Amino acid sequence: MSKILLACAFAGGLATAAGGWYAYPKYESPQRSAAELMDVLMWGREPVGGPFALIDHNGRPRTDLDFRGKLMLVYFGFTFCSDTCPIDLQSIAGALDKLGPAAEAVQPLFITVDPEMDTSEQLKNYVALFHPRMIGLTGTPRQTRQVADAYKVYYARTEPTKRGDPNVDHTGNTFLVDRDGRYLGFFPPGTSSDRLIEVIRPLIERASR
User: Fold this and answer.
1) What pLDDT is stored for residue 208 in this prediction?
2) Which end is more exposed in the chain, N or C (fewer Cβ atoms within 10 Å of the end residue's Cβ)?
3) What is the gyration radius of the CA atoms in the chain, in angstroms?
4) For residues 70 and 106, is the Cβ–Cβ distance under 8 A?
């Protein structure tokens, strides 16, 4: 079972207060002081997101450039997660289903924070449980760290690796990225599919005009 960090929950609380959507890069880092954290949370001075090079659930190399022209919903988790990941991935899948044909403008990405366990084959079986258009991404530990750092995502094992019972604490936000690869904001853990649609649909309609 994974746990959401206190600082992440704090950021998510701010997002919830604004209606479950927060359009500024406000994230935690375990290395920051409380004052530095507040500075990031309140002013959003750090960039979020950026280029990545990973392997998809079919074993194909993928980069962020492959998804230009689509809105991206980016979620970090791991396939053995038993609490937050399934709930949030179900919300993403539900939003895509409710959007109907308009969902073609949105690409959901699931990036594992447990690359040693989550092989391409493991990811393929996992993402298929949620939505046929969801793409699972993995990589080397170094590649995973680079993309997680770019999105200000924290993750760490909470106990020695056990093959049958991995446990990883991780940030649980869903990140929204525009068609040009620019970060727009995040949805906090537990955001409903209806709230995802409320934010995403106007972006799709605006691009189609």
Assistant:
1) 75
2) C
3) 16
4) yes
**Taking residues 17-42, what's their average pLDDT?**
42
Is the CB of residue 150 less than 8 Å from the CB of residue 29? no
Domain-located, residue 1: no
Structure tokens at 4: 């959401």
The whole domain housing 144 covers 6-208
Question: CATH number, domain at 107?
Answer: 3.40.30.10
**37 belongs to a structural domain:** yes
Separation of alpha carbons 196 and 208, rounded Å: 19
Q: At what angle do helices 6-17 and 34-43 cross, to 10 degrees?
A: 30
Average pLDDT over residues 115-142: 96
pTM over 0.85: no
Q: 167 lies in a domain?
A: yes
Confidence of residue 164 (pLDDT cuts 50, 70, 90): low
